[in-house]
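Pipeline run #58 for the internal structure catalog. This entry was flagged by the ingest filter as a single-chain record with no existing model, so it goes straight to prediction. Upstream metadata was stripped on purpose; only the residue string is passed forward. Reviewer on rotation: M.T. Logging verbosity set to normal.
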Amino acid sequence: MKDKELFSASPSVRSNRILYTPSAFARASLLYLQEVGTLQAVRPHTNRRSNLHSYLCFVVLSGAGKLVYEGQQYELRAGDCVFIECQRMYSHSTEENLWELMWCHFNGPSLPAIYEKYRKRGGRPVFRTTDSAGMESLEPVTGILSELFSLAGSSDYIRDMRINEKLSALLSVLMDHSWHPEEQRLSRKRMELYQVKEYLDSHFLDKIVLEDLARLFFVDKFYLSRIFKEAYGVTIMTYVEQKRITKAKSLLRFTDMTMDEIAGQVGMGNGNYFSRRFKKIEGMSPGHYRKLW
């Protein structure tokens, strides 16, 4: 099951987005993805946000709109690229000439310093990119955003590392310099675990018991635990919990379900337990997450 859905909860846009839950290792050590997608506005609207622990890059594929950031207003048109830090208050809007956007929210322990360097080098909130021939083109950014979308919805067992690489490439475009992450070697355990992971992707909302899982696949539970962590970098139960938290983020953002209802829907018991685990993983309560996003 992919962490990808077509959302039409807002009457103002049609969007195709992926909410992504990175591993603890990615949060601590890598550039990590929070959300990626595209949207088509179907009526005029304005989005306002602040205090998000996130950085936003979006491009205007068609139409036009406005960005208000750090007290300045920028007129946006097709071909513009935006890169901002979302702790600061910002808003973007579109009116008669309804726009189509492609975007990603991302973060990482190194990003505050990178963004500060970007600003010192003269980086602006709104700019335009060019291709290798020097002609204006969004391809340097849209190509990477498309790859991020594919990676986030894939079953690639080192996708956090691959996402880190693509976000690094995105920053390279923004900063106009290159960085080449180390290549990562594939684990030979991947094929052995394919069916187990496929089962978890389809049944993560159900009750998962290690002993039952081991019996289902005719393997010793200790061996299964060890090779799963070797292959995917997390324990089976952590992997399942990440899938559940990602689903919970969708329900928090796009439904009015209570915490108890969401907890039951994602297989995490009652609202109190769900809230504790959500805060442990996301660094904020589910109610605060819902309010911010």
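catalog note: Residues 141 and 170 are 7 Å apart (CA to CA).
catalog note: The first strand starts at residue 4 and ends at 7.
status: ready for reviewer M.T.
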